[in-house]
Amino acid sequence: MKTRFLIYGAAGMLMEILWTGSGSIIQGRWALTGFTYLWMFPIYGLAVLMEPVHEAIRPAPWWVRGAIWASFIIMLEYAAGWVLQSTIGFCPWNYSPHTDSHVNGFIRLDYVPAWFVVGLLFEKFHDLLERVLILKRPPKI
Fold first, then answer.
1. Which residues contact 3 (CB under 8 A, 6 or more apart)?
2. Residue 141 located in a structural domain
3. The whole model's pTM is what?
4. Which domain, by its residues, includes 75?
5. Number of domains in the chain
6. What is the pLDDT of residues 15-47, one digit of tens each?
7. Is residue 108 a part of any domain in this protein?
8. How far apart are CA 24 and CA 43, in angstroms?
9. What are residue 98's phi and psi, to 5 degrees?
């Protein structure tokens, strides 16, 4: 579980850097500067807790799974933002200056399609980890 936590944390941060770097094109910043927050590492690492959800919804059609992921991720993002706001006094990401489609600055409703896709990509990544890496250890004798 620790290994998967670290892998998901690193993969999530990489995904966020690629997302924000790509988004800089829209703003005309051709340096393609991407960024994230160190707070995100443990938040993305918690994706390890999504593995049982993946197993439970695996038989569902892709569009149902995507809707479940989008809902689940939005709730987790809101909860993480709220916890950070409550404990350290601020949330590192604040969507309120960027869009009217936010809830308390913690989540962007216009990101729901992106989270839909990210959830389905998570399934592929989870399956890859199960197949390729040492995450399924042989039983001890």
1. 133, 134, 135
2. no
3. 0.85
4. 2-132
5. 1
6. 999 999 998 888 888 888 898 999 999 999 999
7. yes
8. 23
9. -100, -20
